[in-house]
Specification:
The chain is mostly beta strands. It has one domain (about 20-200): Galactose-binding domain-like (Jelly Rolls, Sandwich). About 5% of the residues lie in helices and about 35% in strands. It has one helix spanning about 1-15; strands at about 25, 50-55, 55-60, 70, 80-85, 90-95, 100-105, 110-115, 125-130, 150-155, 160-165, 175-180, 195-200. The longest helix has 15 residues, at about 1-15. The chain is globular.
Protein backbone atom coordinates (compact mmCIF):
# COMPACT_ATOMS: atom_id res chain seq x y z
CA UNK A 1 0.00 0.00 0.00
CA UNK A 2 2.84 2.37 0.84
CA UNK A 3 4.43 1.74 -2.57
CA UNK A 4 1.11 2.28 -4.31
CA UNK A 5 0.65 5.64 -2.57
CA UNK A 6 4.15 6.74 -3.55
CA UNK A 7 3.47 5.81 -7.17
CA UNK A 8 0.13 7.61 -7.07
CA UNK A 9 1.77 10.78 -5.75
CA UNK A 10 4.46 10.59 -8.43
CA UNK A 11 1.82 10.13 -11.13
CA UNK A 12 -0.17 13.09 -9.84
CA UNK A 13 2.94 15.28 -9.80
CA UNK A 14 3.89 14.24 -13.33
CA UNK A 15 0.39 15.10 -14.52
CA UNK A 16 0.89 18.71 -13.40
CA UNK A 17 4.10 19.21 -15.41
CA UNK A 18 4.11 20.17 -19.10
CA UNK A 19 4.89 17.49 -21.68
CA UNK A 20 8.36 17.48 -23.19
CA UNK A 21 8.44 19.72 -26.22
CA UNK A 22 5.62 21.95 -24.95
CA UNK A 23 6.12 25.69 -25.39
CA UNK A 24 6.47 27.39 -21.97
CA UNK A 25 6.00 31.13 -21.47
CA UNK A 26 7.10 33.03 -18.34
CA UNK A 27 5.96 36.63 -17.72
CA UNK A 28 6.79 36.92 -13.95
CA UNK A 29 3.42 38.42 -13.06
CA UNK A 30 2.27 37.74 -9.50
CA UNK A 31 5.71 37.31 -7.90
CA UNK A 32 5.86 40.79 -6.37
CA UNK A 33 8.36 43.63 -6.28
CA UNK A 34 11.99 42.59 -5.64
CA UNK A 35 10.88 39.14 -4.51
CA UNK A 36 12.95 36.08 -5.51
CA UNK A 37 11.66 34.23 -8.57
CA UNK A 38 13.16 30.99 -7.23
CA UNK A 39 10.62 28.16 -7.46
CA UNK A 40 7.61 30.31 -8.36
CA UNK A 41 7.22 28.25 -11.56
CA UNK A 42 8.18 25.02 -9.78
CA UNK A 43 5.24 24.53 -7.43
CA UNK A 44 5.80 27.80 -5.56
CA UNK A 45 2.66 29.75 -6.42
CA UNK A 46 2.73 30.17 -10.19
CA UNK A 47 1.98 27.60 -12.88
CA UNK A 48 4.03 24.50 -12.07
CA UNK A 49 6.22 24.15 -15.16
CA UNK A 50 9.09 22.52 -13.28
CA UNK A 51 11.18 25.65 -13.91
CA UNK A 52 13.43 27.16 -11.23
CA UNK A 53 15.76 30.17 -11.10
CA UNK A 54 19.06 30.88 -9.35
CA UNK A 55 18.98 32.60 -5.95
CA UNK A 56 19.92 36.07 -7.24
CA UNK A 57 17.02 36.21 -9.70
CA UNK A 58 14.36 38.75 -8.68
CA UNK A 59 11.05 40.03 -10.00
CA UNK A 60 10.60 43.79 -10.37
CA UNK A 61 7.33 45.72 -10.67
CA UNK A 62 6.99 48.94 -12.68
CA UNK A 63 6.95 52.05 -10.49
CA UNK A 64 3.79 53.14 -12.34
CA UNK A 65 2.11 50.05 -10.87
CA UNK A 66 3.34 50.69 -7.32
CA UNK A 67 6.68 48.90 -7.50
CA UNK A 68 10.27 50.18 -7.54
CA UNK A 69 11.11 49.45 -11.18
CA UNK A 70 12.66 52.25 -13.24
CA UNK A 71 11.41 50.90 -16.57
CA UNK A 72 8.64 51.48 -19.11
CA UNK A 73 6.96 49.80 -22.09
CA UNK A 74 7.51 46.29 -20.71
CA UNK A 75 5.97 43.74 -23.11
CA UNK A 76 3.61 42.28 -20.47
CA UNK A 77 2.86 44.76 -17.68
CA UNK A 78 3.80 45.13 -14.94
CA UNK A 79 6.56 42.73 -13.84
CA UNK A 80 9.96 41.78 -15.26
CA UNK A 81 12.94 39.64 -14.17
CA UNK A 82 16.35 41.08 -13.20
CA UNK A 83 19.23 40.65 -10.72
CA UNK A 84 20.88 42.87 -8.09
CA UNK A 85 23.48 40.70 -6.35
CA UNK A 86 24.89 38.87 -9.38
CA UNK A 87 25.58 39.48 -13.07
CA UNK A 88 23.31 36.73 -14.34
CA UNK A 89 20.15 34.76 -13.70
CA UNK A 90 20.11 31.02 -14.40
CA UNK A 91 16.92 29.22 -15.41
CA UNK A 92 16.87 25.44 -14.93
CA UNK A 93 14.32 23.06 -16.47
CA UNK A 94 15.29 19.46 -15.70
CA UNK A 95 12.73 17.96 -18.12
CA UNK A 96 14.53 19.69 -20.98
CA UNK A 97 13.36 21.60 -24.05
CA UNK A 98 14.30 21.68 -27.71
CA UNK A 99 13.84 23.82 -30.85
CA UNK A 100 14.90 27.20 -29.41
CA UNK A 101 14.06 29.96 -26.98
CA UNK A 102 13.18 33.64 -27.07
CA UNK A 103 12.70 36.61 -24.77
CA UNK A 104 12.48 40.39 -24.51
CA UNK A 105 15.27 42.38 -22.88
CA UNK A 106 16.39 45.88 -21.93
CA UNK A 107 19.95 46.76 -20.92
CA UNK A 108 22.28 49.72 -20.48
CA UNK A 109 25.29 47.43 -21.07
CA UNK A 110 26.19 44.64 -23.48
CA UNK A 111 25.04 41.21 -22.32
CA UNK A 112 25.21 37.56 -23.38
CA UNK A 113 22.59 34.83 -23.03
CA UNK A 114 23.62 31.17 -23.32
CA UNK A 115 21.70 27.88 -23.41
CA UNK A 116 23.16 24.63 -21.99
CA UNK A 117 22.40 20.91 -22.04
CA UNK A 118 23.17 20.51 -18.31
CA UNK A 119 21.46 21.82 -15.20
CA UNK A 120 22.37 25.20 -13.71
CA UNK A 121 24.24 26.56 -16.74
CA UNK A 122 26.58 23.58 -17.08
CA UNK A 123 27.42 20.99 -19.73
CA UNK A 124 27.67 21.68 -23.45
CA UNK A 125 26.86 25.06 -24.98
CA UNK A 126 23.94 24.70 -27.41
CA UNK A 127 23.40 28.32 -28.39
CA UNK A 128 24.14 31.91 -27.46
CA UNK A 129 23.03 35.47 -28.12
CA UNK A 130 25.10 38.63 -27.79
CA UNK A 131 22.91 41.56 -26.77
CA UNK A 132 23.74 45.21 -27.30
CA UNK A 133 22.97 48.09 -24.95
CA UNK A 134 19.67 49.63 -26.14
CA UNK A 135 17.70 50.69 -23.08
CA UNK A 136 16.83 54.23 -24.26
CA UNK A 137 16.56 53.67 -28.03
CA UNK A 138 13.44 54.99 -29.78
CA UNK A 139 11.27 55.09 -26.67
CA UNK A 140 7.60 55.97 -27.12
CA UNK A 141 4.40 55.72 -25.12
CA UNK A 142 4.94 55.14 -21.40
CA UNK A 143 6.30 58.49 -20.12
CA UNK A 144 8.19 57.32 -17.03
CA UNK A 145 11.03 54.87 -16.55
CA UNK A 146 14.60 55.16 -17.82
CA UNK A 147 14.73 51.62 -19.21
CA UNK A 148 12.09 52.19 -21.86
CA UNK A 149 13.21 50.16 -24.90
CA UNK A 150 12.57 46.41 -25.06
CA UNK A 151 13.85 44.20 -27.87
CA UNK A 152 12.54 40.75 -28.80
CA UNK A 153 15.16 38.15 -29.76
CA UNK A 154 15.34 34.39 -30.23
CA UNK A 155 17.71 31.57 -31.18
CA UNK A 156 17.41 28.05 -32.59
CA UNK A 157 19.62 25.19 -31.46
CA UNK A 158 20.08 21.44 -31.87
CA UNK A 159 19.86 19.10 -28.89
CA UNK A 160 18.01 19.08 -25.59
CA UNK A 161 18.56 22.10 -23.33
CA UNK A 162 18.13 22.04 -19.56
CA UNK A 163 19.21 25.54 -18.55
CA UNK A 164 19.65 29.12 -19.75
CA UNK A 165 22.09 31.68 -18.38
CA UNK A 166 20.68 35.20 -18.75
CA UNK A 167 23.78 37.38 -18.43
CA UNK A 168 24.21 41.11 -18.06
CA UNK A 169 25.10 43.64 -15.38
CA UNK A 170 23.52 43.78 -11.93
CA UNK A 171 20.68 46.32 -11.87
CA UNK A 172 21.33 47.28 -15.51
CA UNK A 173 19.76 44.39 -17.45
CA UNK A 174 16.18 43.14 -17.38
CA UNK A 175 14.25 40.33 -19.10
CA UNK A 176 10.59 39.54 -19.72
CA UNK A 177 8.32 37.15 -21.61
CA UNK A 178 10.77 34.25 -21.69
CA UNK A 179 9.59 31.47 -23.99
CA UNK A 180 11.38 28.18 -24.49
CA UNK A 181 10.47 25.41 -26.87
CA UNK A 182 10.20 28.08 -29.61
CA UNK A 183 12.56 30.64 -31.12
CA UNK A 184 9.69 32.97 -32.03
CA UNK A 185 9.03 35.67 -29.39
CA UNK A 186 5.54 35.90 -27.91
CA UNK A 187 4.22 39.25 -29.15
CA UNK A 188 2.17 41.32 -26.69
CA UNK A 189 -1.15 42.93 -27.51
CA UNK A 190 -0.93 45.97 -29.84
CA UNK A 191 -1.63 48.34 -26.96
CA UNK A 192 1.64 47.34 -25.33
CA UNK A 193 3.65 46.62 -28.49
CA UNK A 194 6.19 49.41 -28.70
CA UNK A 195 9.95 49.14 -28.47
CA UNK A 196 11.01 50.01 -24.91
CA UNK A 197 13.97 50.75 -22.10
CA UNK A 198 15.32 50.14 -18.37
CA UNK A 199 17.65 51.64 -15.68
CA UNK A 200 16.13 49.42 -13.22
CA UNK A 201 16.90 51.22 -9.84
CA UNK A 202 16.81 54.97 -10.23
CA UNK A 203 20.04 55.06 -12.18
CA UNK A 204 19.54 51.33 -12.50
CA UNK A 205 16.47 49.16 -12.92
CA UNK A 206 15.39 49.65 -9.29
CA UNK A 207 14.15 53.10 -8.43
CA UNK A 208 15.08 52.46 -4.82
CA UNK A 209 16.46 49.34 -3.23
CA UNK A 210 14.21 47.77 -0.66
CA UNK A 211 15.80 47.27 2.76
CA UNK A 212 16.42 43.65 3.58
CA UNK A 213 15.28 42.36 6.92
Amino acid sequence: MKTFKQLAVAAALAATLPAFGAVIHLDFEGIGDQNPVGNFYNGGGGTNYGVSFSDATLALVDADAGGSGNFANEPSPDTIMFFLDANDAILTYAAGFDTGFSFWYTSSTAATVTVWDGLGGTGNLLGSLDLRAQHTDNCVGDPTGTFCNWTAVGVKFDGIAKSINFGGTANQTGYDNITFGSDVPVIPEPSTYALMALGLAGIGLVARRRQRK
